[in-house]
Amino acid sequence: MAIITVGDKNQFNDIVKKNPKVAVDFNASWCGSCKTMKPVFEKLSNDHSDIKFLSVDIDEASDLAQEYGITSMPTFKFIDKGKVVDEVVGAKRHDLENTMSSFTS
Questions:
Q1: CATH of the domain at 34
Q2: Structural domains of the chain, count
Q3: Which residues form the Thioredoxin domain (predicted)?
Q4: Options 22, 34, 37, 70, the catalytic residue
Q5: Is 15 annotated as catalytic?
Q6: Active-site residue 34, yes or no?
Q7: Structure confidence by residue, pLDDT tens digits, 51-87
Q8: What residues make up the domain containing 63?
Q9: In what order do the strands lie in the sheet with 83-89?
Q10: pLDDT tens across 6-42, in order?
């Protein structure tokens, strides 16, 4: 399944409202660790078609980054029925994979 690049808060909120489970990659184009984690996030999106995967560039959607308390990149947030239930901060492949496993069960 494709990762949706979100450009603004309205689009983000609309997707979160319509999908019970959402995984979000908060990143920046200049962030090396974000580039390292991108293929991992893409693989997870292919493995879990029941979850909506979003990518948010914090420079383009700074209001979302502020609302979700993003202080370092990449930060992955897991949203279940509109509420953040888990997160992984940093380029931690195993943490991301493990968190995804518990999010899908």
A1: 3.40.30.10
A2: 1
A3: 1-105
A4: 34
A5: no
A6: yes
A7: 999 999 999 999 999 999 999 999 999 999 999 999 9
A8: 4-104
A9: 4-6, 52-57, 21-27, 75-80, 83-89
A10: 989 999 999 999 999 999 999 999 999 999 999 999 9
